[in-house]
TrEMBL record:
<dbReference type="InterPro" id="IPR020784">
    <property type="entry name" value="Ribosomal_uL11_N"/>
</dbReference>
<keyword id="KW-0488">Methylation</keyword>
<dbReference type="GO" id="GO:0022625">
    <property type="term" value="C:cytosolic large ribosomal subunit"/>
</dbReference>
<comment type="similarity">
    <text>Belongs to the universal ribosomal protein uL11 family.</text>
</comment>
<dbReference type="Pfam" id="PF00298">
    <property type="entry name" value="Ribosomal_L11"/>
</dbReference>
<dbReference type="InterPro" id="IPR006519">
    <property type="entry name" value="Ribosomal_uL11_bac-typ"/>
</dbReference>
<dbReference type="InterPro" id="IPR020783">
    <property type="entry name" value="Ribosomal_uL11_C"/>
</dbReference>
<dbReference type="Pfam" id="PF03946">
    <property type="entry name" value="Ribosomal_L11_N"/>
</dbReference>
<dbReference type="InterPro" id="IPR020785">
    <property type="entry name" value="Ribosomal_uL11_CS"/>
</dbReference>
<protein>
    <recommendedName>
        <fullName>Large ribosomal subunit protein uL11</fullName>
    </recommendedName>
</protein>
<comment type="function">
    <text>Forms part of the ribosomal stalk which helps the ribosome interact with GTP-bound translation factors.</text>
</comment>
<dbReference type="GO" id="GO:0006412">
    <property type="term" value="P:translation"/>
</dbReference>
<keyword id="KW-0689">Ribosomal protein</keyword>
<keyword id="KW-0694">RNA-binding</keyword>
<feature type="domain" description="Large ribosomal subunit protein uL11 N-terminal">
    <location>
        <begin position="9"/>
        <end position="67"/>
    </location>
</feature>
<dbReference type="InterPro" id="IPR036769">
    <property type="entry name" value="Ribosomal_uL11_C_sf"/>
</dbReference>
<comment type="subunit">
    <text>Part of the ribosomal stalk of the 50S ribosomal subunit. Interacts with L10 and the large rRNA to form the base of the stalk. L10 forms an elongated spine to which 2 L12 dimers bind in a sequential fashion forming a pentameric L10(L12)2(L12)2 complex.</text>
</comment>
Amino acid sequence: MAKKIVGYIKLEIPAGKANPSPPVGPALGQRGLNIMEFCKAFNAATQSVDPGTPTPVVITAYADRTFSFVTKTPPASFFIKQAAKLQKGSSTPGKGTVGSVSMDQLREIAEKKMPDLNANDVDAACRMLVGSARSMGIQVTE
């Protein structure tokens, strides 16, 4: 029989840098999960990713105080900022641009993010990323 699921915890943690301080500690602690066990497992799972890359993770908490987790691909905004070589997006999107990305760069990002995007094909994923880039004040060039 399958274990009884108590709940899901969604966090965004820098790759390889999970530690018991907030937000990880309190989120896991209130469910009674072993915080250090998660930190070690997460850091081991994200070893291959560049350290510090924001990595979304969904932790499934079970009634017997065990857990399992699934890591997702980094957010689209992270990849778009990286492609445009920016630290952050525009503070006033729509009133000017702070950088630009090409459609080829967006296509690469779409291929990386495809498992986590709600899109049927890469073209649809590209259109989603164009919207994300525009809302960050980044111009999309052909």
